[in-house]
Amino acid sequence: MSTQASQPEFAPGPVDPDEDDWRRELAQGFKDPAALLAFLGMSGSAAVHGAAAAEPFPLRVPRYFAGLMRPNDPRDPLLLQVLPTDAERLAVPGFVADPVEDLSFELATGLLQKYSGRALLLATGACAVHCRYCFRRHFPYADAVAATGRWDDALNELARRTDIVEVILSGGDPLTLSDARLRGLVTRLEALPHLRRLRIHTRVPVVLPSRITDGLTRLLSGSRLAVSVVLHCNHPNELSGVLKAALEPLREAGVVLLNQAVLLAGINDRVETLQSLCESLFDLGVLPYYLHQLDPVAGAAHFYVDDDRARALHASLRARLPGYLLPRLVVERPGMTAKAPL
Predict the structure, then answer these.
(1) Closest to 290 (Cα-Cα) out of 262, 319, 270, 313
(2) Of the candidates 248, 209, 204, 253, the residue with the CA atom closest to the CA atom of residue 230
């Protein structure tokens, strides 16, 4: 197994024709706040106020996702998740650059282990959308991602650590990699006999459904590893018929589909919104998995919902939903052996 892991970096290979659409969409997404606001029929004044916040963490939004936003509505819950604002520049005690202390759990370049039996592989630093509350918005991706030419460090360590049975692909977003690059990585993971499960954490299908190609479906459904895809959707307005159609082949192929959301002030901190989110996810064949309390990352304090209110919202949600639709309300704290119920 160590021989397999020490092979040269896999070649990217040819791009499948059905990848052209999502790659084009990704390249043509909004990168200028003023252009996004103009698309939504609003002036650029908000863009001017948020320009300084966009410098270290620029705006990035696919046009498909922008099309789900309500025109002429500065409080649209999807817009608020992606538009840079001056609030991000406020220094708030307790809100720090590395709120979950990722770097202290590094086993090898791009490979983190926080919990027993599973490890997280930072497959890329790229994302299709830049969410303003992202807990890795300050992460040093240039130094700490298992990117091109450096897969071997992580794979060699995984080969050595036979206690690890599950690998979680994260980033950035692993689905910004091409099907060919993902196939090369998954093939090498499959060659490690102690690995049993593969989990992919991704927001890409929600903001860019065209990324779910036939090639990706074949790759995930054909793996010897038990595959689950954990989506990241925070508001029912992010769900659409287009997304449902994109996810259907994965669901029919036996890929487990879950969702994790982040509790965000002004976006989904109403019980009616959370109930609609959970029920709408189930209509798409996706089970609600986690409702995360916000990680206290610098620049995101304005999204924070205090713990007492979070508990009250979750209790109200429990009274409205059957148990299988109730996500677990959790918080991640450095040094704990698992995510903690709040």
Answers:
(1) 262
(2) 204
Look at residue 112 and tell me if it is in a domain: yes
CA end-to-end distance (rounded Å), the chain: 40
pTM of the model: 0.90
In a domain, 86, yes or no: no
Measured CA to CA, the distance from residue 221 to residue 226 in angstroms comes to 9
Q: Characterise 149 by phi-psi region: left (phi > 0), alpha (psi -120 to 50), beta (else).
A: left
Q: What residues make up the domain containing 261?
A: 2-20+92-341
Does residue 325 form part of some domain? yes
What does the pLDDT look like over 24-67, one tens digit per residue?
Answer: 999 999 999 999 999 999 976 666 667 777 778 899 999 999 99
Total domains, the chain: 1
CA separation for the pair 315, 127 (Å, rounded)? 33
